[in-house]
């Protein structure tokens, strides 16, 4: 790539060296196919320890959209729907993948990317009969699309609300490690497990080559889940490859180490930008930050750095997204701030 | 695994060391996401050279069922169907993945796993009006589920028939390398490209960790194909990972070297078994062979080797499937034959 | 139509005059929409009396393919499939409607259009793991596509088999009245209800303008069924129109009177043809018969009568389908036989 | 029903007596099945005359949701979507029928139930790549869910915008007769045809028992449309029944006479309510009006009349929907106004 550094995303590199080493070390062992290998089993046990729950089912898949497709479509009857934020990944950035499995998404406008129980209640209340869909899943992302996090109390409240109203709570955890690593969220993966029916732990954005771990706590979702995986093209012949990587991610809590580092880099970047008196779209304590710059500053930044322009604020100003990762060099943060100071 | 050796399949190990080396070497380079990276582009160019056609689109996905889902569903209108052998992977072993995208498979009974133009014609002729589906794709596997191969003449004839009858010809190439490496098929990947509308080159069974390369020649199928990939959860964030592996597979024709070796091992195994006067379900010149044994022999083989029992021939005899790969040790072949001789 | 008489089907005319009278008499009454009207309720009560079961749910829809679509898709999870005869309507003549809802049909070859427990067992036994679909519904037609009927004993056996094997038994009853009116079947609608989980009573082919009555006995299928109806476009705004017609069909057992008359006409036609030494594709005791004629006889018949050529027997002979109905004039039967005698 | 009169909807009665007469008169004629009968052909010709376009395809179906399902799903590729108002029938009141065919609806907030080109443009502009769906159809209702109408100029502008931007314009015409009968719209069915790609003419709400006429002008949508009808369970065996009714509706422009009468009744009702100083949710010139009443007035109205409470305005006031039809007695309008005056 042509950039001095890319802040486009947290999946610009391959994988953490420790993970690559595991792949190297286990490479020529003969193992069973389709995720029934000993390496995947080891990874599953490590995750169960970390989430402090032995009574969950864990399945590895190759990507986050795939995880969402398989879990959500496995739960719903044809007339049931999903409640999600307008900004949610499944609504905007999955090319209609959920609707392609036959289900409507009931949208909630949300300024901070999060849902609360009152908003969900309003959706339930407006769905009164068989001429309408029947909402059945509440879909949230932790962290959200705009870098914010649910606190443990918020999550707990939402989960209990779902249980009282016969809804499932599912969490898109593409960046769950970053959320857990944020002090603001005040939650561990064990809490995430306790206060949801199912979620996935994103590996791709947390230092593996590719792969996500679907964690299912609710027994109704567990049933025959491998049929769903197979039917959606998500059951990898060499499941071991993802399993091996997750064993690396959960050995010595590498997932958390990676996320904390990424958050720290984002925080330094964020503080540097704030010190130069720029504002932000959202209060992020995770590895995605959304500063607002005059368009001419955006243009100058583009000359040296890779990033997405998130949207326009007005005729003269735009929000950009800057993403850090487990491997972002601290010197690139410092350089960015210096450059920004100079072009101001 | 508990076996002396597993002949279960050709995806029991990780990947060829040369491929692992590329992953190691490119690991920390920053690259664009979603298959738009320089590593994938290099791999695509290598494949284009090998198939002698620069005017194709190539997309990398994580598995074979996924490749079939995306390509087949991208082509068809809601009322159109696919013609395939009863034994085909999409009919038997994909958990209804194709029907889950809304399409019927019109089945043809085939003793050797292959389709011919007369069989396809009969299907067309029996579909006469809007009360029935409209067959639009002919689906074949090369090599087939039972190890047989289409010769170049057979493929050519089928392709021309399809073109005359407004049908698409799609090839499931999970083991296309093995088919191309078989002298019986008498065809190169360039021939496969010339005589089909689209196909995929299987990587998973040919020495990569995971990944398949979809090759699209027909311009009608090319259009907006990335939308289909995204919607089906098949657009990998780190497309580079599969790209890197295919660059390894097509550098110095490693794909062919791997396949030739696997075929050679299967041939030695096959000859050894024939020499002991056993018969076979099919005439395979690829890396899957299907010997028929008395059930007590099958049981004794199971004590030392891993393999699938394919089906029953009669009360006393069964077909088993033995699969070799790029990494099957020749000594395991010899041991197997010796053991078989001893238990006879 | 240009024919002396059409034996094409049993839906060539409008409806029985008694039914038209009900539509005339109730026309200007204001009623609730979507099947919640008093006329539909009356019809439902009449049907419940006739089937001797008050604990069923009954829903009216506009056509048979629609009934099949809504019921079958309402029952199945995404990976579950339907077992049916190769000749079945859902396999051949519904333009892939079932697959369009996402489900595979597991086919059974059947010479008489019927399924038995051994055939179903073989399908179950060959579906062993999550790489394959999971068969969940046994679909049969009573009477079958080729005019044959299940006897009460056959149906009972199949139903008990289904219950033992965690399968649903669903009956396509497009011509259930004709089957019930056949002495061979030895069953009433009460028996049909007792020995199935759900079925539909065909009105269109039994003397109404349009409409079928779905009868659901199994509580699992009853749940939220109106959502399925609505979603598939099957919940008629003026449900009263079909309700009114079924009230006519079940007042004084008109459905049975209509069917008996149709069967009688078919029987006379059949005997007349047999007396002229022609053979038949199947032993039908219902209102569809399938005589085999030399092609030149078929051509001469076509000059005066409307009917479908079912298929070819060999180069010189074809099966044709002749269908009688509640309104077939007896004189047309006599004329047909006389004409056939003359052209022999 | 228990009401003095029902203003619930425009489908509370059977059908116009002239239409019933046609059904009576043609009842015992033998006709071809599946809409290929002479009665349907006559109806199609009458419609073609009325819309002044002989080059359209016309298909009869049993209901409006069904019409929307079949047309919309027939046009779209898997990744393509529909732009519609948040209040639209397909979004709110079809139980997720459109999503069940695999497609997302892109929503536009609209205070008057209508869409304009600027709103559509904003949707297009925000859909930039293959991570998102690709909007392809603009869906509007004429008249809208809240009784408003597009003027001919508005429709023309929207249609030309669609043509410039490679979009299809489809009109849900459940109440198109009422819209055409409104002077405000200033358009005929010929104009509707000229400025759309496809639409349906609602019969159910305009005086037939059941049935809608799909009119397709765009040749791309015409192709193999009967396959789509069959697959969605919409191809009626006795298509003649709907055909006969539409022949009645278009003989001597009964459709327009019915709609004008319904609009006149709504207008009288509306003026009576306005004269009592109540306000309205929308400016309707069609047969649905939406007055706003204090909740205690609503409760008293409920004692004598049937109608839907549309939604709440605030704690004390609600919108109700009053619908008139071709058969609403003028005396019921007068009674309603008198009653309202008394309870004020």
Instruction: Count every beta strand of chain A, where a strand is a DSSP E run of 2 or more residues.
Output: 13
Please tell me the total number of domains of chain A.
Answer: 2
Termini gap of chain A: 26 Å
What is the topology, as strand order, of the major beta sheet of chain A?
2-8-7-6-5-3-4
Average pLDDT of chain A, rounded to a whole number, is: 97
- Helix percentage range of chain A: 40-55%
Q: Give the count of helical stretches of chain A.
A: 15
| CATH classification, class level of the largest domain in chain A | Alpha Beta
CATH architecture of the largest domain in chain A: 3-Layer(aba) Sandwich
Rough shape of chain A?
A: globular
The SSE string of chain A, one letter per element, is: EHHEHEHHEHEHEHHEEHHHHEEHEEEH
Task: Please name the defining characteristics of this protein.
homotetramer; 344 residues; alpha/beta; Aspartate Aminotransferase, domain 1; 2 domains; seven-stranded mixed beta sheet; 15 helices
């Amino acid at each position: 790539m042509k950039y001095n550094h890319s802040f486009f995303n947290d999946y610009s590199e391959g994988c953490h060296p420790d993970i690559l080493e595991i792949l190297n070390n286990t490479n020529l062992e003969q193992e069973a196919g389709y995720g029934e290998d000993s390496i995947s089993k080891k990874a599953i046990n490590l995750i169960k320890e970390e989430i402090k729950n032995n009574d969950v089912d864990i399945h590895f898949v190759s990507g986050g959209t795939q995880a969402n497709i398989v879990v959500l479509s496995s739960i719903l009857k044809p007339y049931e729907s999903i409640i999600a934020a307008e900004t949610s990944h499944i609504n905007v950035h999955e090319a209609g993948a959920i609707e392609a499995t036959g289900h409507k998404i009931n949208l909630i406008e949300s300024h901070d990317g999060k849902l609360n129980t009152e908003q969900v209640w309003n959706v339930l209340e407006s769905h009164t009969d068989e001429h309408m869909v029947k909402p059945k899943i509440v879909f949230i992302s932790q962290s959200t699309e705009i870098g914010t996090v649910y606190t443990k109390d918020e999550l707990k409240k939402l989960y209990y609300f779902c249980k009282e109203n016969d809804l499932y709570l599912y969490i898109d955890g593409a960046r769950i490690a970053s959320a857990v690593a944020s002090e603001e969220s005040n939650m561990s993966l064990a809490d995430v497990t306790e206060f949801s029916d199912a979620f996935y732990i994103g590996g791709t954005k947390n230092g593996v080559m590719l792969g996500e771990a679907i964690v299912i706590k609710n027994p109704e979702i567990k049933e025959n889940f491998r049929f769903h995986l197979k039917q959606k093209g998500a059951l990898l012949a060499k499941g071991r490859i993802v399993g091996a990587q997750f064993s690396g991610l959960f050995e010595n809590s590498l997932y958390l180490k990676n996320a904390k580092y990424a958050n720290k880099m984002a925080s330094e970047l964020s503080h540097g930008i704030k010190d130069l008196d720029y504002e932000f779209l959202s209060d992020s304590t995770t590895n995605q930050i959304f500063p607002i710059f005059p368009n001419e500053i955006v243009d100058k930044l583009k000359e040296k750095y890779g990033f997405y322009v998130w949207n326009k604020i007005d005729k003269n100003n735009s929000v950009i997204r800057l993403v850090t990762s487990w491997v972002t060099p601290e010197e690139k943060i410092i350089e960015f701030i210096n450059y920004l100071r100079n072009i101001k």
